[in-house]
Amino acid sequence: MNTLADIHYFPREQLVQTVHQALGSGLTHAITMFAARRMGKTLFVKNDLVPAAEAWGWRACYIDLWVRRDHPEVALVQELEAAVRPKGLLARAIKPDKLTAKAGYGGSGVHAEWLPNTGELDLQGRLRNAMRSLAYANDQPVLLILDEFQTLANGMHEDFIAAFRASMLELQPRLKLFFTGSSREALNAMFRKRKAPLFDAALSLPLPELDEDFVQNRAFIFQKMTGRSVDEAELGNVFERIAHVPLYLNQIILHMVVGITSDPWEGLRRWQDEIGETGLREQWLMLKPVDRFILEHLATRQSESLFGSEFSALATERLDDNTSYNPQRIQTAVARLVKALVLAPKGVKGEYEIEDRALATYLASGPSVAR
User: What contacts 180, CB < 8 A, 6 or more positions away?
Assistant: First the structure.
């Protein structure tokens, strides 16, 4: 089901102002923003930040690394090269995959250089050239926005990260950077890199959770679409139940519209039925019993540590499959779930959270998926 965000985006004006003040202050030229998936990072960037940057007189360049996460380094370089490539007749005269070419920009003396695909050894050089060409294409400051940049942590070469960081520092303050990410594990990995850690000088800015203003706005939109009112307090309670995920509240309201109901809890029930029937149940059944036990434990915020003797005894008793689930077995299961992007470390040793937001919200908001 589509979301209301497609036609009724909820702007985050205060957050835009915060970004502008930070990047315009001269005290920092890079911002990192982290939040779980489906919390609205990309919508904020596309609907708020890019138009605002252009209104400030900046050139905005947006690159989504998630869509090509299998080869993020190549994707970043190719997207940067595409952003600085001349358009129109000049572009048709140049064949970047076959020759080296230089293109002047109206007396600016700036040139862009394209080289044939010569493999990984040339990638860092292409990166530097493209970043310089982007920064000096004209007199405008450039805001380079890299969405889901943690995909670079999965790349093969620390030297590529070091080259990116060197160019980033060299081109400041003309080049300003805004990174979004949703994987805390990948963030930690990038900070741990010994060769020029990437974000030691960047400002970390959280994506604020939407609150009662968003609920009131959705209630207004529901009334506008249907002519019916909705209890804002109950809609707020439902929003709390689904962990303040705006995408899910939009979907619940659409279920209320289609189902001809003004009851937010009935909309929640219909939403739970849909997401359970469209993938979560299959995903759940593919997990091992111990994996399910761990996920239910985390979703319901139980107090026992995953790697303590109390949790091991509880798992051994409840699963009842003639297996002793000692801490080592639990660690193996957790590692498997992290690799599958179902769990993610929270940054504190031994603490994990469910990274798959849909699964976490569903487990916390209603009956077990397994039923």
Answer: 32, 33, 34, 35, 41, 42, 45, 145, 146, 147, 148, 149
β-bridge partners, 8: none
How many CA within 13 A on the CB side of residue 361? 25
CB atoms within 10 A of CB 309: 11
Amino acid at 350: G
Query: Could you read off the pLDDT of 28-37 as tens digits, one per residue?
Result: 899 988 887 7
Calculate the dihedral angle through the C-alpha atoms of 174, 79, 159, 27, rounding to the nearest 10 degrees: 20
* Contact criterion met (CB below 8 Å) for 146 and 178: yes
CA distance 108 to 133: 12
146 pLDDT tier (thresholds 50, 70, 90): very high
Give the C-alpha separation, 107 to 109, whole Å: 5
Measured N-to-C along each axis, helices 123-135 and 158-171 cross at an angle, to the nearest 10 degrees, of: 20
Q: Using N-to-C axis directions, what is the helix angle for 289-299 and 357-365, rounded to 10°?
A: 70
Q: Are 294 and 360 in contact (CB under 8 A)?
A: no
3-class state of residue 44 by DSSP: helix
| DSSP secondary structure, 189-207, as one string | HHHH-SSS-TTTTSEE---
Token pair in block for residue 61: 């360049």
C-alpha to C-alpha distances, 332 to 283, 302, 308, 349, nearest whole angstrom:
19, 20, 14, 15
pLDDT band at 89 (very low <50, low <70, confident <90, very high): very low
- Please give the sequence-ordered ranges of beta strands (E in DSSP) within 114-173, or none if there are none: 142-147
Residues 6+ apart with CB under 8 A from 273: none
188: closest CA among 180, 179, 197, 196? Answer: 197
Q: What is the pTM of this model?
A: 0.72
Of the candidates 60, 62, 136, 144, which has an alpha carbon nearest to the alpha carbon of residue 104? Answer: 136
Tally the residues of the chain. 371
* Position 120 pLDDT exceeds 60: no
Q: How far apart are CA 211 and CA 348, in angstroms?
A: 27
Q: Using the 8-state DSSP alphabet, how is residue 87 labeled?
A: P
**CA quadruple 69, 72, 78, 82: dihedral, nearest 10:** 60
Task: Say how far residue 269 (Cα) sits from the centre of its chain.
Answer: 27
